[in-house]
Amino acid sequence: MIGKALGAFPFSKIEKIVRDDKVYLLKWRPSIAGLILPMANWLLRRRIVPARMLYGEEWFQWETFMYSELYHQSTIKISAHRFGIPYISSQNLRAILQNCDTAREEKIKSIALASTALAKFHQTSITDHSGQYYTLSHGDATVENVIIDSNRTNAYWIDFDTIHEPEIPSNLRHTDDLRAFLYTTASVLPMDSVEEGVQTILDAYINHGVVEILRQWIERDRLRYDLYSLGALRDGGGPQ
Questions:
Q1: Is the pTM of this model over 0.85?
Q2: Cα dihedral angle (110, 111, 113, 117), rounded to 10 degrees?
């Protein structure tokens, strides 16, 4: 029940704004999030691969760093607890998969684009503000947090408000991302499309070592005790 309730809670709000003739998505956490975030992070620390949601200045600094490193885009600070990220004309993958008017082939193509983009994301190495060098992971790699451009040619992973601690081995962090992506994709597909969708993810994700770790996790039933993720899966998302 706890994981289900927290999985449904909107930990951030988004609103489209214009500044200096540029369109941004304004992001902020509602005031009540500060009270609930400790419980969410308590559960996130107890996942197979621990993670945590960011808050305040740390959140802004990390999003700013990631958009600059990955997409050479700048964020803007609006106030102490509100900031804007660059707007891209797109749809998130959940919206595409749930749209009854979208052809099956287009949905499968979008899944493949997102999986390929996740693999590429995982190949990116950075040096963070503390001088630590490591390969990236997302921390909340769900279908809500990947967007497909309007031409259906590129996918972009976004919303960097949840992180894995960098000292966790990269193969485990990457497997956790693939787990989140695979499970949330399966949760929104019709039952007769789940097998094809899952296979598309595994085929497009090029790191076979990570795929093998995920297979082992599933076979050993190590995922059913992840209360936060199961609650988020049932309610259509994790941290927003």
A1: yes
A2: 140
* CA dist., res. 145 & res. 174, Å (int): 15
- How far apart CA 149 and CA 147 sit, in angstroms, is 6
Gap between the Cα atoms of 37 and 41, Å rounded: 6
Q: Residue 230 has which token pair?
A: 């199961």
Q: Read off the DSSP letter of residue 134.
A: E
Hey, is 148 helix, strand or coil? strand
Q: Provide the residue type at 58 as one letter.
A: E
Q: Decide: 72 and 19 in contact? Cβ < 8 Å.
A: no
**What is the spatial distance between Cα 52 and Cα 121, in angstroms, rounded to a whole number?**
19
What 3-state DSSP class applies to 221?
coil
Burial of 184 (0-12, 13-18, 19+ CB in 10 A): buried
pLDDT tens-place string over residues 70-127 = 999 999 999 888 999 989 889 999 999 999 999 999 999 999 999 999 999 999 999 8
- DSSP H helical ranges for the chain: 2-8, 33-44, 56-71, 93-98, 104-122, 170-188, 191-204, 208-219, 227-235
Assigned token pair, 16 = 């489209």
Query: What is the C-alpha separation between 189 and 173, in angstroms, rounded?
Result: 25
Task: For 27-86, give the secondary structure using H, E and C.
Answer: EECCCCHHHHHHHHHHHHCCCCCCCEECCHHHHHHHHHHHHHHHHCCCCEEEECCEEEEE
Cβ–Cβ under 8 Å, residues 116 and 64? no
